[in-house]
């Protein structure tokens, strides 16, 4: 083992391998920063290059890329409130409020140190796990996976927001959104609104953008002139961030363990790791009231976990040849391409390659975090620029990101519709994290309940690991019950919790009920393999909504059941949220005619001219600049953009297709 | 001396014959300065994507004009969405092609509404055959793999647990095969192939299906896991032969004949053969859009022949698809036509079977 580790270090220390690693790290950082793209897209890009390369260099390059996407994805999450990859959705919750308080550099500093620590911890775990983890992983059967899913779902209890019923309904709505489109157990298309787009379930990346990015963009456009409320950046943020991490090193270590464990075990998948770590942080620390308002611990937890996850996910990939995540599947493909066969054989005969990967993870994390630290002061300045100047570019960016989900026009429409949901959930105080957790877990809930019951009936609870997980779940629920989250706003007649002027809230609730009823009646058409899950999800949404409806109908006093952010402070001279929604609709309609590239560029130029009041030629320059950006990305990453009617008649030159 | 000269002449003639189409075609068709888009109807990282990216690097080198070849992933509905779009909109000027797979053919074979395309209208370039096998944890099922009759009795009384994605997936081949034998199994759905394989490794499942190449890699030297049967390969005469990588394993029809005392026949068997053809013979297929002119088709066939005889590709291909021979042009088109020409009564049988066994309808 030691010889192999030393031999691997010698392989990595050659100039050629180090350069390959560096190249991988740089590509990884770029795809991490770009919302909607992550390790999977980056690795796909490398595959043809890797083929024919010397194995050590190829390995270093691929691992270098994978190891750092969750480091750089922090930039958009923290600075703009746009989840960079699905692994950093939870980082938005506290990272972005810190930025709004002018603490962007501090938040980034915490995030990079946590990422670095988590990444190295993951490599450390992997170096031991390759020796003994196989029997442990083989213990995690369907019953254990089901309990892991339920344990993860119980995290919702602590993230419900001020009102538990609205929180549970939001989670249930997330589970319900997961029921739209093809059923995982039968492949039959259900609740698809007659669209081909919903042959598959809704993509997670779009739900993430719609819940966090769009509502924040609209809100900021209405309320603030810059992202940082003070319009400035703290100079001392770097040191503060390091201090924050040191104070919370124990939390960082725990979350790194959680991250590598969930990465290694079958059943949950990588995209829920950040939420579990965040939930764990809220459950196990004091002074919980500050979570969600810019608490450094809310950044430490997900960022430690999402980098540690990569080392964990390599465990089943290398030991059993079974990929632990989407990006691991493609890494597996890359390994086969260069002639390395993961599995028992690799552990027996190619241990030096295993250690080469482990060293690569560690070195890539150090280099990646280093580059991010180096770049951060410049990038963080974005938070002090007038917001109307950057908002149109961010809108362009989130639609670009959404389109990467399935490269279909439906992606853009889904983002728009779900963004409307997100905007009103924010306005009416419905927990968006709860919805997201429900959605992330929906497929797993559906599959693992069915599989466990079909295979074991109720006898699965006799298994010892299942019992241990039941105890953990009970603890997690107990913590949620004893912890009563209070609203930060006073419950008064003239505040947002007022019982007067409920019409907009009625409209929202009726919309959710209508969606539930649609899914309910649709589910009745199918057999139990297809219809059972949507039936249960829609009924549970309606059940959790019932108390809300009753309170709205009969309660005649302010209550935390009621919330309307519009009642607290109407921004002066600002436009309404509906105005901005209308603007996005017009932008998409126009893109339908001239294609996305020209559509978004026109939108950017017009927005800069009309809303940000820049000179006309600068506005046009902004639009052209974005076209160039899209063109270069499409060229380098081999992407295509949605076309409009125009492209049916005219073949336009790069980059206008 | 004479024979030496003759050899030389023959060699020269053969070389000419080989190079002739290339030079003629290069005159009137070139992709110089263009970008060729290769559609993959699945996410990055799957088997179809990997094979495409392996070939992508070399395809541009061998096409006239050396175009830039890019791979575009359009996941959705098991490649149905990408196939619909390809069928309806792809330009047939040689700048767009698709990597079809078994999943692209399945909805067509079963006559499902969601597929608005007919792969027989597409212009075939190359087909990749890939062997498939059904294997089991022998002790768990009481299989000895010596006497097929004894194995058959064991299978009939065993508690078979088989994990698969959905009733309408490529594993339908295994369901139909077992149905023909009257072997009953507990099917657990919602398991993508990697999840089914993980469950098999844990012993929660005791039967699994995979391509032969993956089986050999994962269990080739594991005495506890053995193939029950393979699905074989169809030779140039149209006869079913044993899988070249599993020479000691009976094909499904062999197994059937040995235990039932008669050759398999009837509607169920016709469906089984169509599914076998789609899963094994057309595991992956490089296709051009409907109406592609012949010279472009020929240029692609030549290019793919050259790509697949590149030493690097020859070394890497077996790791992706095993060691079955490739087919080109007419041969591929023929396999496609045979595989998707389903008589109405066969489809009816499939619909009834799916309804009865899985309470699942085709549309």
Automatic annotation (TrEMBL), chain A:
Keywords from the UniProt entry: Membrane, Transmembrane, Transmembrane helix
Chain ranges of the DUF112 domain: 18-436
Domain of life according to the entry: Bacteria
TM stretches of this protein: 107-130, 136-160, 167-185, 318-340, 355-375, 387-403, 409-425, 465-483, 503-520, 532-554, 579-608, 615-633
Xref: Pfam families: TctA
Name the record gives this protein: TctA family transporter
Organism: Shimia abyssi
TrEMBL record, chain B:
Record keywords, A-Z: Receptor, Signal
Presence of keyword Hydrolase: no
Signal peptide: 1-26
Keyword presence, Signal: yes
Family matches, as PANTHER family: BLR1237 PROTEIN (PTHR42928:SF5), TRICARBOXYLATE-BINDING PROTEIN (PTHR42928)
Protein family per UniProt: Belongs to the UPF0065 (bug) family.
Name of protein: Tripartite-type tricarboxylate transporter receptor subunit TctC
Species the sequence originates in: Shimia abyssi
Lineage: Bacteria, Pseudomonadati, Pseudomonadota, Alphaproteobacteria, Rhodobacterales
